[in-house]
Amino acid sequence: MVNTMLRLGKTKEELKIVNDQIGAPTFTYDITDAVKDIIRLHEEEETAGVQGVFNFANSGEVTWADFAKAIFRHENIPCKVTPITSQEYGAPAPRPAYSVLNCDKIADILSSPIPHWEDALQRFLLVNP
Hints:
The chain has six helices and four strands; from the N terminus they run H-E-E-H-E-H-E-H-H-H. The chain is α+β, with helices and mostly antiparallel strands. The radius of gyration is 17 Å and the shape is elongated.
């Protein structure tokens, strides 16, 4: 999503972005850090509570339109974001209006708090200029 918005934002004056779907954008480096933490717990035999399925996403939530605005703001891209509905966008497959994962289970065992999506976005932009 970030790379697509950067590419489009640099070539278009305006983008119409869905504003009725809420998610939690997630930086792959943060997922990797969480997996490393779980591996470390396993290697140190501190595995009580490290069983089953874990959700992971950066903390916080945002609409796709507001996420695009944040990307453009951080990169000083003057592209205008016009919020639209999912129906106006017309995707062939329906998308949930709210897709934020509950990450309480993994948050309880990680050595550090799960970073917020805005922090993750800033770090992503630093390593992907």
